[in-house]
Specification:
Oligomer: single chain
Helix content: 10-25%
Largest sheet: 4 strands, antiparallel
Structural class: alpha+beta
Strand order of the largest sheet: 1-2-3-4
Shape: globular
Number of strands: 4
Radius of gyration: 14 Å
Number of helices: 3
Strand content: 35-45%
Order of helices and strands: HHHEEEE
Length: about 130
């Protein structure tokens, strides 16, 4: 597990504990962009339970298979925009870079988030090609 003095995987430049680690430990993310960053960090760290718990129940898969081999090597995250639509809905556009079997890839998505019972959750996303 990451410690307070290690840089957060989300690329914020903050320590893990002060950034995404607090959300992984149970603190509620204040906005969709913070939740999206914490979900990226959860992918990097293999935290499938956190990803499951922050996914909208209507669109959540049964399993993510994060233990499958080969695992992607996550290289970085760029948040391009965060657009609050109203009190309960927001979008976040991001690019996540990773390598799989030595090949580099970019995941460019505009994700939809909804606030359910006071907590932001990921609903789904539109991939950009």
């Amino acid at each position: 597990m990451k410690t307070q003095d290690q840089t957060c995987p989300c690329g914020s430049g903050q320590g893990y504990s002060a950034c995404c680690g607090r959300f992984h430990a149970g603190e509620v993310a204040p906005d969709a962009a913070s939740l999206m960053r914490s979900r990226y960090s959860a992918y990097v760290l293999g935290q499938e339970t956190y990803l499951h718990d922050t996914w909208h129940p209507a669109t959540r898969p049964v399993s993510l298979g994060l233990d499958a081999s080969p695992r992607p090597q996550w290289l970085g995250l760029t948040v391009k925009s965060h657009l609050p639509l109203d009190e309960r809905h927001a979008t976040v556009e991001f690019v996540a870079r990773y390598k799989l079997n030595g090949r580099a890839f970019r995941l460019h998505e505009t994700s939809r988030f909804e606030r359910v019972e006071g907590r932001w959750v990921y609903v789904d996303g539109e991939m950009h090609v």
